[in-house]
Amino acid sequence: MVFLVAVGILMAGYGTAYLASGEVRYLSRAGVEETRILKARRPIRQVVADSATDPSVRATLELVLATRDFAAEVGLEAKETYTTYAPVSRDTLLLVLSAAPRNCLCPVTWNYPIVGRVPYKGFFDAAMAQKEATRLESTGYDVYLRPAAAFSTLGWFNDPLLSTAIERDSSEMAALVLHEIAHNTLYVKSATPFNESFAQLVGYRAAEAFFRRAGDSAHATRAADRWEDEIVLSGYYRELSARLDSLYRVAPDSLAVDRGRDEVARWARAELEGPIAARLKTYHVGKLAERPINNARIIGARIYRTRLDLFERYYQTHGRDIGGTVAALKEELKGVEGDSAYAVLARAVGGAPANAGTP
């Protein structure tokens, strides 16, 4: 996940505007929290060598270092990401807010320097996040607040591995490291779904390659299976979004929208409990099938799952070589911004670009 902490630090010095602007207060809080994290970090190698370090934490950190080395070997720009470790004194690092009108899969967006326009906003302050979510919900928006355990500053700062992000199995841990490093390697301005979906490809396919080279077929297979599950869910959310788009184009009033959403929810439940569940290898549908339609939640889910089939086809056409795939895509996307990134990718693999960049 790309979080706008870098902007927070850049803006935190605007103290004279602090009381007058809620946005400056938000950015200042982000800057303060990032400063705390940076001050608490320790080199991972130092933590590994410390006899007081919990053995399970040590094993995870050793995996992180090995994964970083592999990332550099295949041409990813690891920079200083995850060379340090920082404990966090709470279970949830931050909350991420998404919002959308009830009658449109149209994300509320926030615009910032450097990264451009993004369809979510991260909050270190839970009360501030809930206040903003309540404000948007009171004006008729669907809202979705979710926790996040990690973020990327796109290489602007030495992103530490946080304690909130290490409660994972080995395949997921490696995928997380590679996902965040992918953001350092390729970032398209104002193209959040593209960036996150690209990072999903890199995370899981590079993790698979990492474990296969290490002779760990079990974790390699799990990483590959999780990526295949993500592709399945990407197709599901694409079809779900198409049905909702059709509904919202013709529903004349809020009552018709509500009835139509209920009908789509019934289709979604049947789909999830039937053909989707049958295809998934690592995910369990569980309560996902029981959720009502929420445009913001769907947008949030699709940010990481937009046209994953295109990314997989691009990877296959480049010899299933993740380093070569990333290098080639980076070259093709020079000077590209926004939804044009998906148009470039679709042309490269002969796929349909229509609405590809819309979460």
Structure in a nutshell:
The chain is mostly helical and 359 residues long. It is 56% helix and 9% strand.
Number of helices: 13
Q: For the largest beta sheet, what order do the strands appear in spatially?
A: 1-2-8
**Helical content (DSSP H or I, runs of 4+):** 55-70%
**Element pattern in H and E:** HHEHHEEEEEHEEHHHHHHHH
Oligomer: single chain
Describe the protein.
It is built from 13 helices and eight strands. Helix 7 (192-213) packs antiparallel against helix 8 (217-250). A three-stranded mixed β-sheet has the order 1-2-8. It folds into two domains: 5-169, no CATH class; 186-359, no CATH class. Helices cover 56% and strands 9% of the residues. It has 359 residues and is mostly helical. The protein is globular, with a radius of gyration of 21 Å. The model is unreliable at 2-21 (pLDDT under 50).
